Amino acid sequence: MSFLIYYIIIALIPIWAQMKVKRTYSKYENIGTASGLTGAEVARKILDENGLYHVKVLEHEGFLSDHYNPINKTVNLSPSNYHGRSISGASVAAHEVGHAIQDKVNYGPLRFRHRLVPVANFGSNASWIFILIGMFAHASGLFLLGIIFMALAVLFQLITLPVEFDASSRALKQVKHLGIIQYDEEREARKVLSAAALTYVAAAAVAVIELLRLLLMYTNIFGNNRDE
Question: What are the TM regions of this chain, as residue ranges (predicted)?
């Protein structure tokens, strides 16, 4: 019964975060900014202000599929944010440009996260293979190796938090400095960015909880015994 409650909780955390994001985004998607700029125009304005003339702003299919691609140096905005003139669109566009600015100034956590990507991907995919084999074969070494791989994936989730929070902070400074948002729009833009950050916080929280559960399982199953 306790395991059922546990899995319900870790399933509900990201669902709640996604609902919060969609609700906040939808609310301010219908409220325009005083500047009247589209998300694409907001992104271009901030990029040019920071000397990032080579970074392109592209339309990307999907709902809230917005992202910055550090490989081909593009800010990719979902259709509603690319064409829309809302507080939500301006906030999301500015946030993605925040990542482009991080890239330009060689922001440490962003660089570290990029280097972790292949390791984290391998860790998240391979960890359960070693954990399950270790569990059924009663091989503590394999189980522990799986936990280490899982820990690398968790580290990626944790390092993502300062990267995302910093991008939002840079975004707010830029839209205020350039007059893209004015007066009480700052409070509303902050709500959009804070709601979006919840998805990363939720993902990190679930990852940490799962890692702790595996460590507890390792202790319970193997205790102080060693494989022969």
Answer: 6-21, 116-136, 142-163, 192-216
Residue in 29, 41, 96, 185 annotated catalytic? 96
Reported as a pLDDT band with limits 50, 70 and 90, residue 8 is confident
Share of the chain above pLDDT 90, in %: 78
- Residue 136, Cβ density class (10 Å: 0-12 exposed, 13-18 middle, ≥19 buried): exposed
Cβ atoms of 205 and 213 within 8 Å: the answer is no
Specify which residues 74 forms β-bridges with.
56, 69
Question: Catalytic: 96?
Answer: yes
- pLDDT value, residue 228: 44
User: Residue 59: in which H helix or E strand, if any?
Assistant: strand 56-59
Instruction: Please report, as a single letter, which amino acid is at residue 221.
Output: I
As given in the structure block, the two tokens for residue 209 are: 């909880």
Q: What is the DSSP letter of 35?
A: S
Show the tokens assigned to 87: 């507080």
Which residues lie across from 67 on neighbouring strands?
A: 76
Domain boundaries, the chain: 2-222
Nearest 10 degrees: Cα torsion 126, 130, 135, 137: 140
Residues 6+ apart with CB under 8 A from 58: 74, 75, 76, 77
22 burial (CB, 10 Å; 0-12 / 13-18 / 19+) is middle
